[in-house]
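Section: Multi-chain targets

For targets with more than one molecule, the full set of components is provided together so that the structure can be written out for the assembly as a whole rather than chain by chain. Components appear in the order listed by the source. The example entry contains two components.
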Amino acid sequence: MGKVKVHRNPPSLDMTPMVDLAFLLVTFFMLTTTMAPQEPVVVDIPSSVSEIILPDKDRMIISVADDGRVFFDMDNKNYRAQMIRQMGSKYGIAFTDQQVNAFSIMAGFGVPLGSLPQFLDMDPEDRNTIQQPGIPVDSANNELSDWVVFARMANPRVRVAIKGDRDTNYKVMESVINTLIDRRVLRFNLITNLESEG
Amino acid sequence: MAEVQQQGGGGKDGGKVRAKKQSTKIDMTPMVDLAFLLLTFFILTTTFNKPKTMEVNMPDKVDNPDQQTKINERDILNLVLAEDDKIFWWIGLEPPINETNYSANGVRRVVLEQMQANPKIMVLIKPKDEARYENMVNILDEMEITNMQRYAIVDYSPDDEAIITGNIPVEEVVQEAP
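Its structure, encoded as tokens over all components, is:
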């Protein structure tokens, strides 16, 4: 009788549940992290050594493109609705409920108040295709200052952040900053990338 | 799982010759590695690319000259941010005008040297209209890096233009020391 070694299968681990787990986690993270809001304009922000992170809510972002166009954004639908109603009543433009709704879920915008109703009536995809002219900041017609005031009235805790392009002329930034100072916003943030090594 | 099991000579039953069946099992381990690698990558990058901010405090606009604080001109380091990423600097009201840049060896060294020479020094940053926004951010950054806490962003005036171009007006602007 020969010695027969019983051939045992080496233990094999079925990996299928682990793959399931991995993809479940991926799906979870894909759904829970918020999608970056669609920006109306691409801004190449400068870098700095500052590591302070901008909080996620209660923020008003004034974006300035490199050609000097100014865009305005604020989170929270209710404050946005309040803000646009007040802007409408100050300038005598009546916004329909539909337009107010469209405005409150929209991201940043950069059109003068006169063209805002037509802008809001457009389809969201069409809005992305047109070139927005920017909010007027000149001294004759400083709509930005009104937006800032009404935003702060709607939400007193709002923090102002400026997202400027590296190549923006200082002149435009100066008028934006002066607008803020005139409206008693003396503390604000400048959005920057983290600089790796000065 | 990484087995290709040959069930080849399995059971001989009834003399039928069975074709050798090979069952292939795919090893899932690399796929799991890949999935976890991607997952880790995305978790880390989405939390890390939240944009950072610099906090800026601006002084209130003071129109009344009596309310403006007066400083000895020798305690002032003027930095003019000009076009093409150039910086002109001088102390107080007089030339010599020096030129520097934004590199680590440039304005940072100037500020550190002046801070050492005069601990009471205050920096006035005067951006010209042709300067870029990045210049302003870089200067504020340098203030933070050099730990200079007394600085202000002021308007670029014709007097500054005169000092730079060398045409100093006849009547001197005198600032009284407090």
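The longest strand of chain B covers residues 52-57.
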